[in-house]
Amino acid sequence: MSYEKGFSLKELNKPKDWTNLADMAKKHAPIIDAPRKVQAKEPFTVKIKVGGIDGVEHPNTLGHWINWVELFAGERLISRMEFEPEMCDGYVVILSIAMNETTTLRARAFCNLHGVWEGREKKVIVE
Ligand SMILES: [Fe+2]
Q: Is the whole-model pTM more than 0.85?
């Protein structure tokens, strides 16, 4: 990340070097957990956890919290979840979805102070 403060409010924040993450990325990047292979039209579980990488959790206060998480299949937004400050712990979302074809899942999270963050893509192969 080349931004002076380690984040941008105007552009998408997306870590490039996952072997050397800054704490700012560790607490904001959404991590997708999903099966590598699924059956067509059969529901499977997708878990998205925002931050918490290496134990670096994001704050959850009235002044600073993760406002929402979005899940994309390819370029298409398929789900959006909102969090209330101080009302939820750990920023974890679990979804059940079914796909018709192989796709690449992407998750984005928005922090009211540090902008929009995208984590690693997760390819799901539909057999
Ligand atoms: Fe933040």
A: yes
Which pLDDT tens digit goes with each residue over 108-127? 999 999 999 999 999 999 99
- Angstrom distance (rounded) from CA 75 to CA 67: 21
Task: Give CA–CA dist 65/24, Å, rounded.
Answer: 13
Could you tell me the distance, in angstroms and rounded to a whole number, from the CA of residue 109 to the centre of ligand 1? 10
101 Cα to the center of ligand 1, angstroms: 34
DSSP symbol at 113: T
- Which pair of structure tokens corresponds to residue 73? 């299949």
Q: Quote the ligand 1 centre to 60 CA distance (angstroms).
A: 9
CB 42 within 8 A of CB 98: yes
Closest CA to 32 of 70, 59, 1: 70
Q: 124 with 36: CB under 8 angstroms?
A: yes
- Domains of the chain in sequence order: 23-126 (2.60.40.730)
pLDDT digits (tens, 9 = 90+) for 73-96: 999 999 999 999 998 778 999 999
